[in-house]
Each structure stands twice: as structure tokens, then as C-alpha cells.
Design goal:
Blueprint (H helix, E strand, L loop, with lengths): L21 H10 L5 H21 L9 E3 L6 H9 L18 H9 L9 E3 L6 E3 L2 E2 L11 H11 L4 E6 L1 H6 L2 E2 L13 H18 L3 E5 L12 H17 L9 E6 L10 H6 L5 E5 L17 E7 L9 H9 L8 E6 L24 H4 L3 H17 L5 H16 L6 H8 L11 H12 L16 H12 L4 H22 L16 H4 L3 E4 L6 E4 L2 E3 L3 E7 L6 H8 L7 E5 L1 H6 L2 E2 L5 H21 L4 E5 L14 H16 L7 E6 L8 H6 L4 E4 L8 H7 L5 E4 L12 H14 L18 H22 L1
Parallel strand pairs: 1-5, 4-6, 5-7, 7-8, 8-9, 9-10, 10-11, 15-17, 16-18, 18-19, 19-20, 20-21
Antiparallel strand pairs: 2-3, 12-15, 13-14
Helix pairs in contact: 1-2, 5-7, 7-8, 16-17, 21-22, 25-26
Length: 784
């Protein structure tokens, strides 16, 4: 049987949280025991069907597989764990005789329970989405344990939409997995490929029986040479995987046609991924032509394949110049492909739902941006227009193409996009603006001023955001609570948090950040050059959603942002208080950033604004200032050849922000959500006096790496995993601390949670911090 025709326009995925975060609310209600699994399933089903029909209304074909079936309750990688029954042994009791997890068990693997830690979490390629890392050993069982993908296809089909199921491909799944603790030394999860492929074969056969014309298997491991598995091994595995899945199975009768997605970069590199896929018998290949260049052609093997030109940016929010995108698509004519169609560069998971969900009448967001932006629904519309241009001719969409050109021109010419004073200040920077004095001299001056004990205890910054805090903020935004009353409410919360920290016995205190809705959005609201949405929600991980600000113009700080909060906090205690800022790289990584100038230039503008804030904090008597960079590794290019340039400007922007202080002022930074090994040099290059890092889930993996690299400044490896509701015991924290001081000079070690406590409840927070202090006292006693 011949392969079905791939639709002329499609997208690689669509937001799954719902336009008003309906999935988040339903999932968290289930976690809290307020609703049942059946009710959650019903809400999710309604969201899936509504999303499929919405995509058809926006211009995608309802019958050809143009609509992606890319839903997940929590994480697409965890979904494959469930599909394969590849559950870590500590959670084996949660599975039935077929290896399947129910919803409660699925969430337990994600979040942990009791003494059983959840799967690790780290970033998904170069996005601000974070996935759960599978744990695979030689004995991990693989079987077709979960047919949700098939059932969800049938659900949409019954509702009148033939979707294209989207599943993380077998090679990427194994390449991103970690060796389980009970694995033999040197074991590679990718060596289990032959055991995983039969399950994918069963899945494809089940989808064929259900009537699926297409399936999408995402293999972004092909665009990166920065994952732990060498590129040559990834490519060999892809060749074998698609021999089994494409060549050995007959299209139509035994499997759907296969689209291999390769987002987040170009397929060409040391090993040519496009040529590799062209040599297989898959029916379609999607190219990211936003992050990757148009390949040189012709490419052998493409004559019987469809190339999906990913020209609409799924990773950012700017409206496309449709004429330029059509030119990109036309540039693929030399590849020798059987057909060329139009798509997005990545899944639209990474952008908000709909520009029109904003209220553009209130002035809360600059109305000019309405024409400049394209969220998920607008991007689907752009794909539909480009597809019509390919199939019916440019004249049919002339008005749409001209409207896009005018919008792009309007944005380029708008006031505020370029601010001469900002450009002049950046141009006048010298080498001295990026460097501080000798660390040993700084450390001695800081200890003389702060007089901290061995193994100082602190937190990362935020404390739980209670319903009362959120309610006060919402009322203030609505104008129903005056600014004065709001400030009083926040000061009352700060006073309570300070008293709590003193009762627990922490050494360096924070104000808890009750006034901050989000660590990036808060600063965006107080810096010129940013816009903040009301409904631009994007999934970060699990049920965690954020509203990334939109950085559209040159950045300036019109007034101090945090000084009053920090000085009020310092007035409540004799202990040192940290001023809390978000660093320039993280502000960029967790925003939708302008694409009309180099990122390094934008980072320096943010760095200069933060430099002014730090100067004001220092002048106000704040002796410890933390500048968080949890996203330092998130923007790291996937190709090693591009990483040095990125690390140069990212480190420089942090140093620009922090280098203006005197020796006695202690600069902290914080990093999380990352495998840090490949950026240890950059961590050192930041030249912070103290760096705290996420380390609890990985059981201090980073600490020996830092020691081996000769890192010799303050380090706070996290001993409390705040991404799980479980309370670590005193013994568990003691064990982690003992691991830390075995590798690092104890005089350099700080004790802190992995990350901020904003998403936790006070009950678990207080118990965990009490155990943290008790463990610290125990290890101090051991050290004498």
C-alpha cells in the first residue's frame, strides 16, 4: 500500500494546558483529593477534543493527520515511560500485572512519595520546558503497557478529527535517559534499543488498526551533539530504529506513515542527520528552518519523501514575514524531495494560546504589540496561509502576505525599540566594567563583615505563596485593594517569614518574595522595554505554568525595584539578609525576546539595569545580593561549535551586572534544572562569591565535578528537592551534606534547598527546613 499524502500545512504540536489553564487546575484538584480520576479524565478529554476542533477551525485539515495529537497530563517523556512500563523499581508496586500505571501512579512517579524520590527533572533541549529523566538499567522491563496514545486517537476520530499521534522517538527517549542506580558501571540506556523497538512496533500496529494515517516520532537528539551519547551512536541507533519501524513494517496495513520531527536545530553537523533520515524508509521529515539553515541539495533518498518546512517559529511569539517564509520554503526546491509542505519549527507547546485572549482595551499591554505578535493560534493561521500559497498560488493570499509585511515594518520603526541613551552606554563599556578583585581578598573581607558559621544555612529566596498572598495581589491588580494596603499586607507576610526563619535557625535570611508573582515577570513589570500579558500562559513543567514577558525594546530601569523590600526586611533582624534579583540570562531565557538584534546585546542592556539595582541595594546597606541564573544552561546552543560564543556573552552579562560592588559585598548566584557538567567553566567564570545549585535529586552529582574542575569559591549544593511534596528526613539531608563535604572544602559549603519554595506548602516547608538545620548541626559537630 502506498503512503498517504502528507497535509500541505501542519504543526508539530499544540499547547495542552488549555486556554485558561484548565488542565493545570484539574490536575491539581485531583492531587488535592478534591476530584476523582474519572473527573480528571473527563476534563482532559474535553480539552483534547476542543483543541482538535479549534485547529481545524484555524485552517488545518480534519481528515489527513494535519492536527497533532500531542496531549500529556504531565510530560511527554514520562508518557513514554508509561507506554513502555519502564517504571523505576522503587515504584514497581504502583503498576498492575501488565506494567501499567493508573493516573495516581503516573503522578507519583513524577512527584515522588514518602521516601521514594521522583524522577529527576532537566531542561528539554534549548527551551524553558523541563522533562522527567527516565531511569533505565539492564533489567528495566519494556512492554506495551499503556495504550493511551491509541485511545486518544480514537477519541478525536469519533469527534470528527483524524489526528496525527505525537510520541517521543525511541532513540531520543533512550539517549535522554540516565543509567539507573543499580546499573553496571559504563551501562548506556541506548544499548536497550533492541528491547524498546518491539513496543514501538506494537504501538504502530495498534494505531494502524485504529485507522491513523500518520504518526509523528520526535527525534530532537539528532540536532544536538551535546547530550551524553556521542552523535555517531545516536545516528547508528536512528538507522537501526527506523529500519525496524519503517522498513520491516508495511505502511498502511502494519503501521501509519511516519513523520520524523527534528526540532530545535539544523539536522546537519558532524554527522548529516538529513541524509541519514533520507536513507531510511520513513515517509516524511520535518526540518527546523528557524534554528537551522536551508540544507544544500540535492539529498539522495528524498525523492519519495515529504519534507515539512518548519518555517513558522514555534519557539517565539513574533509575527512572521510571510513573504520571507515563502522564500525559505522555495529554497528547498533543490533538495529533490518528492513534496514540500509547510509547518512549524517546533511544537507550539512553547508559546501561549491566543493573542486575542488579551484585553487590548485597558492599556495594561501596549496595543501596538497586538499586530506584532503571533501566539499558537496565530501561528496555525500563518501555516494555513503559507500552505494555501503553495497549493493555490501566492495571489490567493496576497492580502495576508502584505498585512504581515506591514506589521513587521511597524515593529521595526516603533518608538522604544531603539533608545539612543541605552545604546551609547553599552558602547562605552570597558573591560574593567566586567571584573572584580581577587576572590581570596573578597572572601576575607566578607567573612570579617558577616561573621558566618561553618556550613551557613539559607534558602534560595521565595517562600510559599499562600492563597492570601495571591488574593491580595489579585485585588490590588483589580484596584480593589489600595497600594498602601497591599504594601502593608506584604510587609506583614515578610515579618512572618523573617520570624519563621529565625525560629528555624537559618543563618542568612530572605524576605520570601511575597510581592513577586514570578521571578522574571516581576522585573519585567518594572523595566521599560518589556510587556506582560494577562493570559499568555506556557507550561514550564507538570502543572507549573508561567507567563513569559515579551522583551520588545531597549531595556532601562526607571526606578529602584527591590530596595524598599530588602531594607524593610533588614530592619526586622540582626542576621544578614539577602537582596534577591533575577540575572540577565534568566530574564532572557524565560521571556520571549526580541529577534532583531544579537542576544548578547540584549543581555548587556538587562545587565546594566541590574547593575544599577545592585548599586542601590549596596548603598542601602544590603551586604549579600543574590543574582539568580537558573537558566544559564537553558540557552546553551545544542551544537558544541556554537557554545563558546554563547558562554562568553552570557557570563559577561552576569559579570557586568555584579562587578560594580565593593569587596565586602557578597554576590550569590543560583542555578537549577540542569545537568551542569558541560557549563562548569561558565559557573566558575561568573565569579560569584557563592553559587547554589540543584543537587538533591541527582544526589550531589555536581559536587565531584566541581572539585575535579578546581572550583574554589562558595558552593551550596541543594539538599532538599523542592519540586516534590515529600519532606526529606534529617538522615537524608545529613547523608547528602556528608557527600558534599567529602569532595569540597567544608569552609566553602553552604546549606540550602535546591530552589525557591514558592510552589510548596508551609507544612512541608517548615518540616523540611527544620530537618535541614538539624542535619547541618549534626555535620558541623562531626567536623568539629
Amino acid at each position: 500500500m502506498s503512503a498517504p499524502t502528507f497535509p500541505s500545512g501542519s504543526v508539530l504540536g499544540y499547547p495542552r494546558i488549555g486556554p485558561r489553564r484548565e488542565l493545570k487546575k484539574a490536575v491539581e484538584s485531583f492531587w488535592a483529593g478534591r476530584t476523582t480520576a474519572d473527573a480528571l479524565e473527563a476534563t482532559a478529554s474535553a480539552l483534547r477534543v476542543a483543541a482538535a476542533k479549534r485547529l481545524v477551525d484555524l485552517g488545518l485539515d480534519a481528515s489527513s493527520g494535519a492536527v497533532p495529537g500531542s496531549f500529556s497530563y504531565y510530560d511527554q517523556v514520562l508518557d513514554v515511560v508509561a507506554l513502555l512500563g519502564a517504571v523505576p523499581s522503587r515504584f514497581a508496586s504502583l503498576t498492575d500485572e501488565k506494567g501499567a500505571l493508573d493516573l495516581a501512579g503516573y503522578f507519583t512517579v513524577a512527584r515522588g512519595a514518602g521516601e521514594d524520590a521522583p524522577l529527576e527533572m532537566t531542561k528539554w533541549f534549548d527551551t524553558n520546558y523541563h522533562y522527567l529523566v527516565p531511569e533505565i538499567s539492564e533489567s528495566t522491563p519494556f512492554r506495551f503497557a499503556d495504550d493511551r496514545v491509541v485511545r486518544q486517537f480514537v477519541e478525536a476520530k469519533d469527534a470528527g478529527v483524524v489526528t496525527r499521534p505525537v510520541v517521543v522517538g525511541p532513540v531520543t527517549f533512550l539517549a535522554l535517559s540516565k543509567a539507573a542506580d543499580d546499573s553496571a558501571p559504563g551501562f548506556s540506556p541506548l544499548s536497550r534499543l533492541a528491547d524498546v523497538l518491539p513496543v514501538y512496533v506494537e504501538l504502530l500496529r495498534a494505531l494502524a488498526v485504529a485507522g491513523a494515517p500518520w504518526v509523528q516520532l520526535d527525534e530532537p537528539a539528532l540536532v544536538s551533539d551535546s547530550i551524553d551519547v556521542p552523535s555517531a551512536e545516536v545516528h547508528a541507533a536512528v538507522t537501526e530504529a527506523y529500519r525496524v519501524l519503517a522498513t520491516e513494517l508495511a505502511v498502511g496495513s502494519e503501521r501509519p506513515a511516519i513523520l520524523v520531527g527534528a526540532p530545535f536545530g539544523g539536522l546537519q553537523g558532524e554527522h548529516d542527520g538529513l541524509a541519514l533520515l533520507a536513507a531510511t524508509d520513513v515517509e516524511a521529515i520535518s526540518l527546523d528552518l528557524v534554528k537551522g539553515a536551508v540544507p544544500a541539495g540535492p539529498v539522495a533518498g528524498l525523492a519519495d519523501k515529504t519534507v515539512v518546512a518548519g518555517v513558522v517559529d514555534g519557539h517565539n511569539v513574533w509575527r512572521a514575514d510571510l513573504a520571507a517564509k515563502l522564500a525559505l520554503v522555495e529554497g528547498l526546491s533543490g533538495l529533490g524531495a518528492g513534496a514540500v509542505t509547510v509547518g512549524t519549527s517546533t511544537s507550539l507547546l512553547h508559546v501561549p494560546h491566543d493573542v486575542e485572549d488579551e484585553d487590548w482595551t485597558t492599556g495594561a499591554i501596549d496595543v501596538r504589540l497586538r499586530d506584532w505578535l503571533a501566539f499558537a493560534d496565530q501561528k496555525v493561521g500563518e501555516v494555513a496561509v503559507l500552505a494555501r500559497a503553495l497549493t493555490e498560488g501566492r495571489d490567493v493570499v496576497g492580502a495576508e502576505v502584505e498585512a504581515s509585511r506591514a506589521a513587521v515594518a511597524s515593529r521595526a520603526e516603533a518608538s522604544g525599540v531603539v533608545v539612543p541613551a541605552v545604546r551609547e552606554r553599552a558602547a562605552a563599556l570597558t573591560e574593567g566594567d566586567f571584573s572584580r578583585g581577587d576572590y581570596a581578598e573578597r572572601a576575607a573581607a566578607q567573612q570579617a563583615k558577616l561573621n558566618l558559621p561553618l556550613l551557613p544555612t539559607t534558602t534560595i529566596g521565595s517562600f510559599p505563596q499562600t492563597p492570601e498572598i495571591r488574593r491580595a495581589r489579585a485585588l490590588n491588580v483589580k484596584g480593589e485593594l489600595s497600594d498602601t494596603d497591599y504594601t502593608t499586607a506584604m510587609q506583614d507576610e515578610i515579618r512572618r517569614v523573617v520570624e519563621l526563619q529565625e525560629q528555624i535557625g537559618l543563618d542568612v535570611l530572605v524576605h520570601g518574595e511575597p510581592e513577586r508573582n514570578d521571578m522574571v515577570q516581576y522585573f519585567a513589570e518594572n523595566l521599560d522595554g518589556f510587556a506582560v500579558t494577562a493570559n499568555g500562559w506556557v507550561q514550564s513543567y507538570g502543572s507549573r505554568c508561567v507567563r513569559p514577558p515579551i522583551l520588545w525594546g531597549d531595556v532601562t530601569r526607571p526606578a529602584p525595584i527591590t530596595v524598599d523590600w530588602s531594607t524593610f526586611t533588614a530592619s526586622l533582624t540582626e542576621k544578614p539578609v539577602k537582596g534577591m534579583l533575577t540575572g540577565p540570562v534568566t530574564i532572557l531565557a524565560w521571556s520571549f525576546v526580541r529577534d532583531d538584534q544579537p542576544l548578547g546585546d540584549t543581555a548587556n542592556q538587562v545587565g546594566l539595569a541590574l547593575r544599577d539595582e545592585i548599586a542601590d541595594l549596596e548603598a542601602a546597606g544590603i551586604g549579600i545580593i543574590q543574582v539568580d541564573e537558573p537558566a544559564l544552561r537553558e540557552l546553551l546552543p545544542l551544537r558544541k561549535a556554537d557554545q563558546a560564543a554563547y558562554l562568553d556573552w552570557s557570563v559577561s552579562s552576569f559579570r557586568l551586572a555584579t562587578a560594580g560592588v565593593v569587596a565586602e559585598t557578597q554576590i550569590h548566584t543560583h542555578l537549577c534544572y540542569s545537568e551542569f557538567g558541560e557549563v562548569i567553566g561558565a559557573i566558575d567564570g561568573l565569579d560569584a562569591d557563592v553559587t547554589s545549585v540543584e543537587a538533591a535529586r541527582s544526589r550531589m552529582e555536581i559536587v565531584p565535578e566541581l572539585a575535579e574542575a578546581g572550583y574554589a569559591r562558595g558552593i551550596g549544593p541543594g539538599v532538599y528537592d523542592i519540586h516534590s511534596p515529600r519532606v526529606p528526613s534529617t538522615e537524608e539531608v545529613t547523608d547528602l551534606l556528608e557527600l558534599a563535604v567529602k569532595s569540597i572544602d567544608s569552609r566553602l559549603v553552604w546549606v540550602n534547598p535546591d530552589c525557591g519554595l514558592k510552589t510548596r506548602r508551609y507544612e512541608e516547608t517548615v518540616a523540611s527546613l527544620e530537618n535541614l538545620v538539624a542535619a547541618t548541626n549534626a555535620v558541623r559537630a562531626q567536623l568539629g
